[in-house]
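Recall the central idea of this unit: under ordinary conditions, the amino acid sequence of a chain determines the structure it adopts. In this exercise we apply that idea directly, starting from the sequence alone.
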Amino acid sequence: MTDTLTIMVAPNGARLQPSQHSAVPIDALSLIDCLHACADAGAAMAHIHARDESGAHSLDPTLNRRLYQQVQDAVGDRMVIQLTTEAVGRYSPSEQIGLVKAVKPEAVSIALRELVPDPSETTEARTFFAWLHHHAVYTQFILYHPQDVARYRQLRHAGVIPPTGHHLLLVAGRDQNPPFGHPEDIVAMWQALPDHNNLPWSACAFGHHEIRCLTTAALLGGDIRIGFENNTQRVDQRQAIDNASQITDLRNTLEKLGYCTKPVQALRQTMTQSF
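Accordingly, the structure predicted from this sequence is:
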């Protein structure tokens, strides 16, 4: 095997509750146990959400700093830990920025449509993106539609987004109701990318076509994100056992196609060299 790719896991997200699936980790201890199992299964990066005492998604800086440090101390040598800034319709761009500056994670995810809701108002975003680059925070820009890809291209061309130190996440099916992705969603966004060969990107997908979408992404040269944030079902629509079992199913599929997974040491080298 000569083709390598990174597997990222998104184990909990902002909304899923244990009442919906008993294996969704929403507190620090269950999250750490989950991430160790996911690292064993082949994931090199983890996308984490903090939950408050009621189980709701929170961008509270103190809560996130505590969770991030706990997870980093427990599994940081095994996985890159990426902090979310997801707004869930509750948090402003300034609050998202304040969270990242308070925690200073090694990696962060940002939805462009949330942080830059008005394409004509980019001053705050430009300053923040420059701060991320200066502090070598590996940034993932989340894109949901070819129009988001076009916005990314515009912001990068205008110098709002620095040319290095980041990668993209293409999300299949988020704008469907209910969210449900198809392989052609990945293809459409991939076709809109400005530079297929030199722009690192990955993909995730809502719904039980998740593995089909992620296999498509791998064949197009992308990395992949899998996990309960987007989907809790296997391809046959049976409930998955847990996040690690989903990674194992995907990894088995990819290995049959000649792919092997990138270890965390190689991923961190890629991140360092991206700045």
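DSSP finds ten helices and ten strands in the chain.
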